[in-house]
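== Sequence, C-alpha cells ==
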Amino acid sequence: MLVALWAQDKNGLIGKDNQLPWHLPADLKFFKETTIGKTIVMGRKTFEGMGKRVLPNRQTIVLTRDENYQSDGVLVMHTVEEVLDYANKVNHPVYIIGGALIFKDYLPYCDELLCTLIDEEFDGDIYMPTIDWSQWQLVQTTEGIVDEKNRYAHRYQTFARK
C-alpha cells in the first residue's frame, strides 16, 4: 500500500529551499509515529535537504535519475516501477514523503493520503501538485493542539481513494 504523507500551508506550499518553511513539532511527532518501522520514499533533493540524514528505524528509499548515486544507509532506486515492486513485496505501508515531483509521480498509485493542513500562509518555493479530489474521500480529521511549541493551528486529514 502506498500512502502520500505531507504537510502544507493553506495555499499548498510544502517547502522552501528544500526545507520545511515552518516549525511544528507536533507534526514532526506525527510523522515519526506514523512512519516508524515502515519505509519512506523521497527524492534526492529532499534527502539532501535533510542533510542526507537517514531517519532511524525506517527503511529509506531515495529516488534519483543519477544511476551512479549512492548514500550509506538507503536504498537508491531510479524508477516508479522499482518502488511499486518494492511496495508490493513488503507487509507494511510505504510512505511517499516528497518532494513535489515525487508526489506527482506517485499520487496515481496511492491508496491513502495523510495531509497536515496548517492554517497559515508561509513564504516558499515548492507546492504540492494538483490533486484530483474527486478521487478521494475525507475519512478522518483530527485537530492539532496549539501551544507554546506549536504556534500554528493545524489539522491532520486522512483521505482514502474512492
